Amino acid sequence: QERYNAPEREKHWQGIWEEQQTFLTSTDRSRPKYYVLEMFPYPSGRIHVGHVRNYTMGDVVARYKRARGFNVLHPFGWDAFGLPAENAAIQKGINPREWTYENIEAMRTQLKRIGLSLDWTREFATCDPEYYHQQQRIFLAFREKGLVYRKKSKVNWDPVDHTVLANEQVIDGRGWRSGALVEQKELAQWFFKITHYADDLLDGLDTLDKWPDKVRLMQRNWIGKSQGLLMRFNLSGEKVPADFGSVQVFTTRPDTIFGASFIGISPEHPLAKELAKTDANLADFIEDCRRIGTAQEDIDRAEKKGYDTGIVAAHPFRSTTKLPVYVANFILMDYGTGAIFGCPAHDQRDLDFARKYNLKVKAVVIPDDADPAEFKVGDEAYTGPGRLQNSSFLNGMSVEDAKEEVAQRLAKRNMGEKKTSFRLRDWGVSRQRYWGCPIPVIHCDKCGVVPVPDEDLPVRLPDDVSFDKPGNPLDHHPTWKHVKCPTCGGKATRETDTFDTFVDSSWYFARFTAPHAAEPVESAQADYWLPVDQYIGGVEHAILHLLYARFFTRAMKDCGYLGLAEPFNALFTQGMVLHETYFDEKQNWLAPDEVKIETENGARKAFRIDGGQEPISIGSIEKMSKSKKNTIDPDVFTQHYGADVARWFVLSDSPPERDVVWTEEGVQGAWRFTQRVWRLLNEAEPRLAAADAKVPATFSTPAQGLRRAAHKGLAAVAEEIEGLRFNRAIAAVYEFANALQAALQDKSAAGDESFGFALREASLFFVHMINPIMPHLAEEGFSLLGYNTLLANEPWPEVERSLLVDDTVTIAVQVNGKRRDEIVVPRNADRADLEAAALRLESVARAVDGRPIKKVIVVPERIVNVVA
Ligand code: ANZ
Ligand code: ZN
């Protein structure tokens, strides 16, 4: 029999699926629905193996659910706006739109070769005017609802190129093109009021029990709800400006007040700004702080620095204690009140700061089991629970009680009030970039901000843009931004900012339910399909994308577009695909296809394929990346081995939530398995024709054994796929393949009618078992078995529960009363089965040694005695 020619047969089946529109979403509403979605990709140009793993996971679920009688929605699209298209325009002079659509074209072709059961009629790209048209309408609806506002906010400003830079364009604090030191500049920008839903976004996490705990925790921390206290400190000193008699701080640890050793205010705090008017050194210091960069990590990483203002604050409970007031670079203006009291013993940032400026470090909370005389704070602040000490009326209290006590005493004196704070900030969506969705408003000197009237939407991106000048081409386009004010008809200009691309990906899953509707969503469709039943994607999106999508869903609900708050019922975050790295003596990376591996005495050595006797180095196993050249081109791979091998391999070796290492041996193993499946089916097939189609009244022992293996195998594959344990589903298939192979080799089964039936059933189950992961080979096998319909349209077979329980007994076999062997048979095996099974034994034949058999005594479930 011939080898299975995967590349050729895969093309064949893909052609048939396409021609028959097999995976078109059904409009039959009588069946239960199942919406499975993988995070849509950015059209960077080529599919990589990580995509293959991600989309195969979704595809396995989609195909399986389809077979289980669900109406499956499994769509695909492109997250197509963003900076790389502009970079291509700058570097290669290609128009961003053309670059993007060409990439989409190429990637779609590649994806189709993987054999995904997608409904391609629902495909869209976020840069399609049809899509961003609806996004502009959603924005204006949000604005009507008061969920959008404009305020001044900081951006990275390149003082040489006179342009705003994206965070990715700031490299080590310098502009990527000019090399100039980046500054912070305030610009009026658009914000989405995500904080309006802060509590709801937090509470909603409790309902998402099919999300990884780790992701929920990350979201919880990001939202960062803190119960704290606003405390007022009275200021004194010559320099205290008028109107600044006191400063208010936000603290979550009022219990530590007796450990306070300074007051810190943000460089942007009004008091700091006021003082800077008369203090040039302070003004310089503040200027310095601005250079840190806007990202949180930059702030956390920067060295703690402060400026002593010379002002002091009175301790609220110990009037003799005066706390120096510092302007400090680690205090953010947009959290709490932009001011803190510093307690170095119990806060790491404060401790770093105190060590630098020689401020007092006094421990006021000690662990329950610590000796107060011994307990010291070294380089690490103590942030755990414990008892209060050195704290006057708080001494001996627990942290919780002390917090309450301080709050109450201050409240009585009007010096403190409880306050909840969120770390979550409103979402700044303005980007000063070309390749994004235009923000549909017009600025008029007379009328202010005017929304673009609905009939004038979409605001389209112009095609004729130039990237010769740095900055936003929309801004220096000769005509695009100059328009008449829709309200007064006077001269006005369009908003030239475009949306953050996270906006585009915040509602695409809803759009898939009616991708070409004239409204953002069609209620009937959205109500039927949403929420997404299974969302699959990378953990790198655990915070922002998922939070923004959850915000959008709530906001769209409040605007009447959607009927639900949580968009993703279950979330699965898949691991990455890794590969070994190779490099030569000059530290140049080599790609896997430039290298051959030889094993000598168990040691692996790498050589160049194109000659070279000297071994090259094998580096560590790392995430596939272009820079290390350790990537595998799925296209080349599928043309050689076929998509099924790739699909099988990426799911086989480790649990899907973990990383998998792409290895040649692993690939070979997967390839050999496809050939083995093909061989087994070819061996089984000729023996099926003779088999009776009717269910036999009784089953022989081999038939019964095979049936058990088949039903158990099918049930196991189903259960593992339901739990997204694809590697274990694969293990169950391997196990069944072994059972099938053993049964095919069992000579005793020849001519047994009930075995023929069992073999037919087992072969059919086999193709069903592999179908979700290796759908092409499964179709091929199904057709080989004589069916002329598509397996993709077949329901998942029903298992017989009774065959799943291990109901076997071990029976001793004697010859002339002497124990010779034992057999394992179903408990309900009858006398004839037992007799036949015993007589088949090699050991029995040897003991009988050619003598005629007089009789066989059978005691069911106990013993078989052969009398010779
Ligand atoms: C005194 C104190 C003593 C604090 C102590 C902590 C430990 P979370 O829990 O994240 O809400 N803080 C307040 N506003 C700040 C700002 N704008 N920039 C930087 N830090 C700020 O953090 C609340 C704590 O962070 C507050 O409690 C405050 O320091 C600091 F042993 O007050 B704490
Ligand atoms: Zn006007």
Report on this model:
By secondary structure, the chain is of the alpha+beta class. The chain is built from 25 helices and 37 strands. The strands form eleven sheets. Strands 10, 11, 12, 13, 14, 15 and 18 form a seven-stranded mixed β-sheet that branches. A four-stranded parallel β-sheet has the order 2-1-26-27, with helices on one face. The chain has a four-stranded antiparallel β-sheet with strand order 6-5-9-19. The longest helix is centred in the C-terminal third of the chain and has 22 residues, at 701-722. It is globular. 42% of the residues are buried. It catalyses: tRNA(Leu) + L-leucine + ATP = L-leucyl-tRNA(Leu) + AMP + diphosphate. It is an enzyme of class 6 (ligase). Its main location: cytoplasm. One of its GO terms (biological process) is leucyl-tRNA aminoacylation. One of its GO terms (cellular component) is cytosol.
